[in-house]
Amino acid sequence: MQAPAHTASTDAVEKIARRRLSAGALYRLGVASRSVAAIVGGYVLAALLTMLLSVSLPMARSEAVMTATLLSFAIYTCVVMWVFATRSALRAWLGLLIPAALIAAILQAMDALSWSLA
Fold first, then answer.
1. First to last CA, the chain
2. CA–CA separation, 54 vs 71, rounded Å?
3. How far is Cα 70 from Cα 64, in angstroms, rounded to an integer?
4. Is 38:83 a contact under the CB 8 Å cutoff?
């Protein structure tokens, strides 16, 4: 029996097949992505929620800031657990970025978000 001739398309398919990641590598990348999402995204979301609560809680300013800061620890913990409970890393990232963008927009509309470093 004669071996099939190699064409340009079969060579391209073989190159793509060699570049694919193994299941273990994909799993590790997913865990790494979720870890970054939990650490960085969780911090950003907790910080934004803390700012929103600090300016919107109906109590004295110092008490509102203290209450929001204490709540931020629980918020951050819940966000980290949620990131690892989602089905995919993409859902985790979207679940952090969309609420963070909405909260940032609310804070900007309230003039409570200062983008200047001065």
1. 78
2. 10
3. 10
4. yes
Asked whether 30 and 89 are in contact (CB, 8 A), the reply is yes
CA distance 3 to 26: 34
Supply the DSSP string of 14-81, one letter for each residue.
HHHHHHSPPHHHHHHHHHHHHHHIIIIIHHHHHHHHHHHHHHHSSS-HHHHHHHHHHHHHHHHHHHHH
Whether the predicted pLDDT of 78 surpasses 60: yes
Proportion of the chain above pLDDT 90, given as a percent: 66
Please tell me the distance from the alpha carbon of residue 86 to that of residue 34, in angstroms, as a whole number. Answer: 9
Identify the weakest region by mean pLDDT among 2-6, 53-57, 79-83.
2-6
Phi/psi for 7 (5° steps) reads -115, 175
